[in-house]
Automatic annotation (TrEMBL):
The keyword Transferase applies. The gene is gabT. It comes from Halobacillus kuroshimensis. The keyword Membrane does not apply. This is (S)-3-amino-2-methylpropionate transaminase. Its EC number is 2.6.1.19, 2.6.1.22. Keywords: Aminotransferase, Pyridoxal phosphate, Transferase. Belongs to the class-III pyridoxal-phosphate-dependent aminotransferase family.
């Protein structure tokens, strides 16, 4: 069998060790890292470090590389753009790639209504602008997000984020008029409650939230991740999402789908919200849209997007030409290579492998997700469902040192998430899963001894 992962040195290796020392001398400790080495080359679903160690990538730069590292179509677009101009500032002299990308996003986004598109730099910036647009359009102030949700690290998006450590601790006071509603966590539903009963209960809890926490007529927007990312890839029931959207419509609240991590093929569709048969008023996009370049956007109803006046939205590098060209190329790759369909296949392979593994290992609590946005929750045992953060960290570390880039997530830090490039080959996928399977077995206790 072909070996795609290849670890030739200890981690960090000699060159990485020197760079790591320089890094600690100059970069704040608050900027964390998952593996103690430095990239030298990346292509497809593999990354090679400065010491010649090659890793299979199940992290995808935290979900930004759905079309793979250095895809030839993306590289060609970037080289072509660099030869023409790098940046003029869209609010100084406009350029066609911004318009072309906006048109493509509007055409792909759900809903037959007229749409307009604002381009920005990062996911957090997109969410911030969605809030600004919603407030401008509705004349209201309050913003509702959900428990376990993550929306960014700026003041507003940090305020909208649920997890305290490491994202919020010591960084307050936070932005006012931000409220967090309860969100379904089916794996941790009350004992004895059926899935249907739990879902109805959560819908009622959201209705109660509108009575006890914030009045509907004060709310500008409800912002929801169709699948919670940092929260642990938690997938709500379709009826819950539809009920929230229905209440938004009833009270004149804008429904915002945060598709930063879920978008552009990850769940088997361009937008994860399509799984719920719901049409958002605004959609935020970033990460894999840019295939590794910084770009983000807000897609929305024309009348909503036009609420703000001239000069009220924008930014120096917003919708920069390189990001636009990379995004146009990425969309072309998703379409031409059938990556939405590929995501469904990858997700099925991952789930099947872990369902088989769970028969022997009591530490695998739940396997969940949509498309290739799959996660495994690690617990002390399946009876108590007690989160096992320490075991999760050990598994990830061992897998990384064996040549697999993989990430954790979850409110309790006990979730292993999969964000591999969708162009990953069958051999690479199989080998990566085998590395992780070996790590889990070596770090945990079998169910039957």
């Amino acid at each position: 069998m072909t070996t795609h992962a290849s670890i030739q040195t200890q981690l960090p290796g000699p060159k990485a060790g020197e760079l790591l020392e320089r890094r600690h001398n100059i970069v704040p400790n608050a900027v964390s890292y998952g593996i103690p080495t430095f990239a030298a080359k990346a292509e497809g679903a593999k990354v090679t470090d400065v010491d010649g160690n090659t890793f299979i990538d199940f992290a995808g730069a935290i979900g930004t590389i759905n079309v793979g590292h250095c895809h030839p179509t993306v590289k060609a677009a970037l080289h072509d753009q660099v030869d023409q101009y790098i940046h003029t500032g869209f609010n100084v002299m406009m350029y066609e790639p911004y318009i072309e990308l906006a048109e493509k996003l509007a055409a792909l986004a759900p809903g037959l209504h007229d749409k307009k598109v604002l381009l920005q730099n990062s996911g957090a910036e997109a969410v911030e602008n969605a809030v600004k647009i919603a407030r401008k359009h509705t004349g209201r102030q309050a913003v509702v997000t959900f428990e376990n949700g993550f929306h960014g690290r700026t003041l507003m998006t940090m305020s909208m984020t649920s997890k305290v450590k490491p994202y919020k601790f010591g960084f307050g006071p936070f932005a006012p008029e931000v409220y967090k509603a309860p969100f379904p966590y089916p794996y941790r539903k009350p004992e004895g409650m059926t899935e249907e009963e739990y879902n109805l209960f959560m819908i009622e809890e959201f209705k109660k939230f509108l009575l006890t926490e914030v009045a509907p007529e004060s709310i500008a927007a409800v912002v929801m991740e169709p699948v919670q990312g940092e929260g642990g890839f938690i997938v709500p029931e379709k009826s819950f999402v539809q009920a929230v959207k229905g209440l938004c419509e009833e009270h004149g609240i804008l429904f915002v789908a945060d598709e930063i991590q879920t978008g552009f093929g990850r769940t088997g569709k361009y937008f994860a919200i399509d799984h719920y048969e719901v049409t958002p008023d605004l959609i935020t996009v970033s990460k894999s849209l840019g295939a590794g370049t910084p770009i983000s956007g807000v897609i929305g109803r024309q009348e909503v997007m036009d609420a703000a006046g001239a000069g009220e939205l924008g930014g120096t590098y917003s919708g920069n030409p390189l990001g636009c060209r990379a995004a146009i190329a990425a969309i072309e790759v998703i379409e031409s290579e059938g990556l939405n369909e590929r995501a469904v296949h990858i997700g099925n392979v991952v789930k099947d492998r872990f369902h088989q593994l769970s028969e022997d290992l009591d530490c695998i609590g739940e396997i969940r997700g949509l498309g290739a946005m799959v996660a495994v929750e690690i617990v002390e045992d399946r009876d108590t469902k007690a989160p096992d953060k320490l075991l999760t960290q050990k598994i990830i570390s061992e897998a990384q040192h064996a040549g697999l880039l993989v990430l954790g997530a979850g409110l309790y830090g006990n979730v292993i998430r999969f964000l591999m490039p969708l162009v990953i080959t069958e051999e690479e996928l199989d080998e990566g899963l085998s590395i992780l399977e070996t790590a889990i077995k070596s770090c945990s206790t079998p169910q039957h001894v």
